[in-house]
């Protein structure tokens, strides 16, 4: 009795000739977002730690001043979106590799999706609606950067 062993690179399921290859696009996204994240993260670290007074200058006023500039809002927003989607895609890959039950895989992927979407919405709201000096607030509760405004 002889047994046939398939070639090592044989796909587990038949090739689909139509439709989008989401695994390929996920793989490409991970590489492209990784390169962009390196630039964004090192730029973020350089501005926060090397320029000015360094780490001792990072406080509420520093963040308020930084996020008053639309350039830094977009920079930090892009970093947030790329990092969260990159991390979510990586977690999805781990779930695909290690969760053997189809139901468990689906549940975990939905949980990852919900977590990523919630964090994206909340993080984006914080970055783009942040106001260190809200109108109508009691003066004794406002940070020192608002006293001169």
Automatic annotation (TrEMBL):
Primary place of residence? membrane
Cofactor(s) the protein requires to work: heme
Q: One GO cellular component term, please give it.
A: plasma membrane
User: What InterPro entries does the database record attribute to this sequence?
Assistant: SQR/QFR_C/D (IPR034804), Succ_DH_anchor (IPR014312), SuccDH_FuR_B_TM-su (IPR000701)
Q: Which Pfam families match?
A: Sdh_cyt (PF01127)
Q: Which biological process terms from the Gene Ontology are attached to this UniProt entry? A: cytochrome complex assembly; tricarboxylic acid cycle
Asked whether the UniProt record includes Cell membrane among its keywords, one would answer yes
Q: How does it sit in the membrane?
A: Multi-pass membrane protein
Its annotated compartments are: Cell inner membrane
Its keywords, alphabetically, are:
Cell inner membrane, Cell membrane, Electron transport, Heme, Iron, Membrane, Metal-binding, Transmembrane, Transmembrane helix, Transport, Tricarboxylic acid cycle
Look up keyword Membrane and say if it applies.
Answer: yes
Give TM segment ranges.
Answer: 28-51, 71-89, 110-130
Organism superkingdom = Bacteria
PANTHER family in UniProt: SUCCINATE DEHYDROGENASE HYDROPHOBIC MEMBRANE ANCHOR SUBUNIT
Role: Membrane-anchoring subunit of succinate dehydrogenase (SDH).
Give the protein's recorded name: Succinate dehydrogenase hydrophobic membrane anchor subunit
Give the species this sequence originates from.
Paramicrobacterium agarici
